[in-house]
Structure formats: structure tokens, C-alpha cells
């Protein structure tokens, strides 16, 4: 048994060669070793950055970071999925400001031969807000003015407010507002083979065409027959000419005579509607005026006779 050089017991005899006197556990770094260490550090940093980036949240696109769209824009993007019997389908036709409504009201009573009222104001954004309120205002104005005319035509003891005038005026005006766009739509689509106008666009332009009759319905209360007829003709020609200017660019140039006749039908239909409203609610005949004058004179004479007898 012998002690080895490291202090432990061993059975082997000591080697005759030179014995190890020191054990080096660390060595000085050379220039090559320093470069290797730097490369290792850079590699570790790159790996850490790659790992961090791999776990970092990456949006699929930049739109995920934007704010949500308003409800109106969402509805506009989903119009392809809506159907005509759904209320959401008509929401886009009520998105209009006051300035646009005023421009369309003014354009419906100012015909311009060189500029289409439809193409300049309605084509890009047809609405139903303006036509709806134009028709409602026209209905109420006709009913109120018609009752006022009846009050002056009938004796005071026989007069009662006729609420049926509201129903009758609503039927006549709404029937014209919906029937004429329907006829014009099928005429352009199936006879002229023109798909330039949609049904809602025609509803829009016909609704605004009734604007001029709102002040005229107030002037119809004047109990002068020739003035009532003159107002009816002038208002119908002005408003109907706006419709003709809007429809004329779409007619076929090869059949000018027939298309001109069809435009005259549009004008006369407009005039016929105005005549019906005037005759039903406002027309004052000479017999009614004479009977009213006679009734007034008789009542005046009776009151004067009664006063004289008392004296």
C-alpha cells in the first residue's frame, strides 16, 4: 500500500516518469477565445429576441388595431345580405342632411334644360326622407285648406270639421306617389329596355315633384275659379317639366316621336293629379258663390228687419 501523489492509497507502484506537481483548472483567454465568446453571446441574444418575437402578439392586419366602425357603416357593408322586406334595407335611404334636402326641394321647382335634376342631386344618394315628409305635408295642407274652403262655402250653422278629407287626400296623393313610379319603372325596364332608374330612385324624384303643390294648396283657398285653374296649370307644368328633363336623356333617339308622346303622358298625368286635388277639395263654382252671397244677403236683411221691428 502506498500513497499516491494526490494523497489517496493505491496498490499500483509509482510511475517512473515525471510526476504531476500542479493541476491547472483555468487557462488565460486568447484573442480567438474572446471572439468566440462574443459570438456565443450574440447568438444567445439573437435566440432570446427570436423567442420573444415568436411569442409576441402579431395582428393579422392593421385593421385589427383600428376603432370599430359606426353602426351606419356596418349596415352599409351588410346591405348585400339585407332583403327588401326588412326595415334595415331602407335605413340608407334616410341618411341625408338638411342641406341636401333643401337643394332637392329647390331643384324640384326650378327646371333647367341643360342640367338634369336627377343626375346632379339624386343619382348618387337617393333618399325617402324628403319625399315622405313632402307627401305628409301636402296631405295635411290639403285637408286643412279644404276644411277652410268648406267653412266659407257653407252656412255657419251647417259647418262641421270633415276629418274624412285627411283620409281622402292621403289616398289620392299616396296613390299617385306610388303608382306613377311603378308605371314609369316598368315602361323603362321592359319597353325601352333601360335599367338606368331603380324603383326607389323614381319614388324619390316623384316625391320631391309634389313640393310645389304645398304652397299652391294654400293659394287654392282663394275663391276665384280662373285663378285656381291658372295655379293648377302653372304648378303642373313647372313640376312636370323637371320630370321630363330627368327622363329625356334615357329615351331612345331612334323613336323620338313615340318617346316625346310618352313624356307628354307623364306631364298630363301630373296635371291630372293636380286637377283632381283642386276639384275635390277647393273648386268653387259660380253657383256656390251666388248661393253664398244670397244666403249672406238674406241673413243680413233678416237681422236688419228684426232690429227695425224692435225699434
Topology of helices and strands:
Layout: E1 2-3, E2 9-10, H1 31-55, H2 71-77, H3 98-107, H4 117-122, H5 129-153, H6 164-191, H7 199-208, H8 213-219, H9 225-247, H10 256-281, H11 286-310
Antiparallel strand pairs: 1-2
Helix pairs in contact: 5-6, 5-7, 5-8, 6-7, 6-10, 9-10
What are the key terms here?
single chain, 311 residues, mainly alpha, two-stranded antiparallel sheet, 2 strands, globular, Protein YIPF, Yip5/YIPF1/YIPF2
Classify the helix fraction into a percent range: 55-70%
How far is the N terminus from the C terminus?
A: 173 Å
Question: Which value, in Å, is the CA radius of gyration?
Answer: 45 Å
Secondary-structure element string: EEHHHHHHHHHHH
Mean pLDDT: 75
The backbone outline, from C-alpha atoms, is globular
Strand order of the largest sheet: 1-2
Structural class: mainly alpha
pLDDT < 50 runs, ≥5 residues? 62-79
Strands, total number:
2
The percent range for strand residues is under 5%
Number of helices: 11
- Major beta sheet, specifics? 2 strands, antiparallel
Amino acid at each position: 500500500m502506498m500513497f499516491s501523489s494526490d494523497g489517496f492509497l493505491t496498490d499500483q507502484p509509482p510511475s517512473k516518469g515525471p510526476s504531476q506537481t500542479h493541476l491547472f483548472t483555468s487557462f488565460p483567454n486568447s484573442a480567438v477565445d474572446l471572439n468566440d465568446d462574443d459570438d456565443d453571446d450574440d447568438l444567445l441574444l439573437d435566440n432570446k429576441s427570436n423567442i420573444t418575437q415568436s411569442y409576441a402578439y402579431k395582428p393579422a392586419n392593421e385593421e385589427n388595431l383600428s376603432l370599430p366602425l359606426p353602426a351606419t357603416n356596418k349596415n352599409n357593408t351588410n346591405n348585400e345580405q339585407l332583403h327588401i322586406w326588412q326595415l334595415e334595407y331602407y335605413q340608407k335611404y334616410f341618411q341625408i342632411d338638411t342641406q341636401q334636402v333643401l337643394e332637392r326641394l329647390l331643384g324640384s321647382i326650378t327646371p333647367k334644360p341643360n342640367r338634369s335634376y336627377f343626375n346632379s342631386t339624386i343619382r348618387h344618394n337617393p333618399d325617402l326622407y324628403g319625399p315622405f315628409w313632402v307627401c305628409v305635408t301636402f296631405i295635411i295642407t290639403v285637408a286643412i285648406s279644404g276644411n277652410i274652403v268648406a267653412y266659407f262655402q257653407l252656412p255657419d250653422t251647417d259647418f262641421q270639421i270633415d276629418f274624412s278629407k285627411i283620409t281622402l287626400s292621403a289616398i289620392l296623393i299616396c296613390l299617385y306617389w306610388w303608382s306613377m313610379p311603378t308605371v314609369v319603372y316598368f315602361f323603362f325596364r321592359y319597353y325601352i329596355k333601360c335599367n338606368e332608374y331603380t324603383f326607389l330612385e323614381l319614388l324619390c324624384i316623384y316625391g320631391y315633384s309634389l313640393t310645389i303643390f304645398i304652397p299652391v294648396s294654400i293659394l287654392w283657398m282663394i275663391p276665384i275659379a280662373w285663378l285656381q285653374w291658372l295655379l293648377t296649370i302653372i304648378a303642373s307644368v313647372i313640376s312636370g317639366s323637371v320630370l321630363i328633363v330627368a327622363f329625356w336623356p334615357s329615351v331612345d333617339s331612334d323613336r323620338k316621336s313615340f318617346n316625346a308622346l310618352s313624356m307628354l303622358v307623364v306631364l298630363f298625368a301630373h296635371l291630372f293629379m293636380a286637377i283632381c286635388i283642386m276639384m275635390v277639395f277647393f273648386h268653387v263654382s259660380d253657383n256656390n258663390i251666388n248661393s253664398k252671397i244670397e244666403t249672406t244677403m238674406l241673413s243680413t236683411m233678416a237681422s236688419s228687419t228684426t232690429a227695425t221691428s224692435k225699434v
